[in-house]
Design brief:
It is a single chain. This protein has 100 residues and is mostly helical. It has 4 helices and no strands.
Length: 100
Amino acid sequence: MDLENKVKAIVFEALINLNEEQADGEQIALDRESVLFGSDSMIDSLALVSVIVDVETEVGSEFEMPIALTDDRAMSRQPSPFDTVGTLIDYIVELLQSDR
């Protein structure tokens, strides 16, 4: 499995775990286009923080490389890594490739 697919699997697993805690109708679709942050998001900011922590933990474990998704680099990017599931996956892949 290539890097992007491994990262996608980690992000999707974090979203599946979140969806198990969400009420019906408040679950986020497992799709690269799903909005994570902003007025169109199906999740609130606390749920997003939970997803970020889960993803950071699992990426660190899987790749034996700690990452920080909420540092200054992430916060100043346009588009934000937290806009959609796809932008989050792409950002994590970029981080992992640049730290190798």
